[in-house]
Amino acid sequence: MLWRIAARPTGRKLTAEDFTRVDDPATEPLGENGVRVRTLLLSCDPAQKGWMENAGGYAAPTEVGDVMPAFGIAQVIESSAPGFKAGDFVEGSIGWRHEGVLPPRLIERIEASPETLPLHLGALGGTGLTAYFGMLKVGRPFPGDTVVVTGAAGAVGSVAGQIAKIGGCRVIGIAGGPDKCRWLTDELGFDAAIDYREGDVGRQLKELAPGGIDVLWDNVGGEILDKLLARIAMHARVVICGGIARYEQPGRPAGPSNYFNIVFKRATMGGFITSDYETEYATARARLAGWVKEGRLIHREDMAEGLENAPETLMRLYRGDNVGKLVLKVADPV
Amino acid sequence: MLWRIAARPTGRKLTAEDFTRVDDPATEPLGENGVRVRTLLLSCDPAQKGWMENAGGYAAPTEVGDVMPAFGIAQVIESSAPGFKAGDFVEGSIGWRHEGVLPPRLIERIEASPETLPLHLGALGGTGLTAYFGMLKVGRPFPGDTVVVTGAAGAVGSVAGQIAKIGGCRVIGIAGGPDKCRWLTDELGFDAAIDYREGDVGRQLKELAPGGIDVLWDNVGGEILDKLLARIAMHARVVICGGIARYEQPGRPAGPSNYFNIVFKRATMGGFITSDYETEYATARARLAGWVKEGRLIHREDMAEGLENAPETLMRLYRGDNVGKLVLKVADPV
Question: Which residues of chain A have pLDDT under 50?
């Protein structure tokens, strides 16, 4: 089975009709320099909707009819490419398919045991690297700083907040619902959590962070970003990591009308793409792995199952239905 | 004569009714540590409306009834403060008044001849320092970069663009009307100018800067900022210097809905306040003075006359009626 892109969801919500299921695709020839893989785990990432729209121009362009792109982990069945052999675990651009032949440039061999595979999509994979580089390179937290994270119970947000805690900061998470908020404070060690569905975020934040926000990590955009920009501290760093608000409404959400506070507070607002720091991946992964081992970085998977459920699982992400890293399990390793 | 703040123009246009004229104010006692000055020149700055609103919290708070604050240049009449004597030229927070007693902390003695006084409000004063630090510290232009300046025919914009030219960049100015545009290209040496009143700014910019904008200097905000954010290049630096758009409409203008391009382009958007770089003022002034002397930095005053015309002169600024530095001449030096 595989799933193809059926339509571009530009300017509207993603729906099940944006994907076409192909139950019995033809077996691809291995060819020269090919790696035939069986998909084990698929990562669900907010950026996937953007890839379908070709938004931003930073990822490989997609066409309607393409196999739906997705990061994931797979196991090699056979290979004509040097460096890959049957049984190897690989991670990379796998796509929504049970099986396929990939060029070696899209995948990377990883050393992992079957139990630790999900960690390679999460805290040690794209999720962890995004949180690590965004926080260290753009957020630049200093011990004692007040750090606020939106979408804090999501995959990247929960890791970003914990990295700020490791960095000696006071961390406040913003999330939807009491369960997510309790998870942040009781299990991840956030100093406080604000349920944006209950009461006024700005007023609560004023009480929790009277000195303002030194590092603002935003995964959401829209109205919440605007409210938080009104509360930044002098020389604040605003890390724009995601804009989940733009996925659940038609068109683009309004821009932050409080952006001018960047001037009053001599602040900077920055974006980043993890792959810009590829030369530092090894260091980052080693540090993240150390924190996980020491129990300072807690990772949680929200695990769904079955490739037939891929569209429904991805759509959960934009509704904020997940806690931690949303992963789709496709098959067990051999 | 002096002018007092009569009302806070928050969320609306400035009007003549926001000021109260006092024709015969009582003569203030000199007191201890006082400097009695006679105002010569007053600077007209967009920030003045913000000061009346107490917006941003970065300037000394104002009250209705206060003398209208303004930077300016004055001449000392008498002084009981050390370091000031009759005849000295001083610059600083003078306010809209013919004469007054100021504490020494609000003013600074300057070495200037009567002819060069306006230069000390402009290219060698707050205007020049704002352009210098914003461009060097936040814009960080590199030779060959494409730099776009909005409000380019204004005081700060015209200097910022010329500094980028000195830095070896290709500079495109955006201004209102053919006269301003001609001034930018024919006299200041900008590589191109776009009249935002004629045709689509985004389309014209696409032709003039097909590789995108490396440094975007924004004095305007609103719709133009949004259009330009759609055209930034990879790793662009966006310098938020001003937001003149917010002065001519009720409420706040919409925020830039294209802010998310900061992520796609790994860009940064930053604000700054010149006084953060006070330790570097001497270096900056020396470099600016050198460029003026060499004819590489051209400075133009748009000179109005008479303290009675202060409100009307300031309001011209928000309508974009000035070319270069808008200065109100109050009196000649003795």
Answer: none
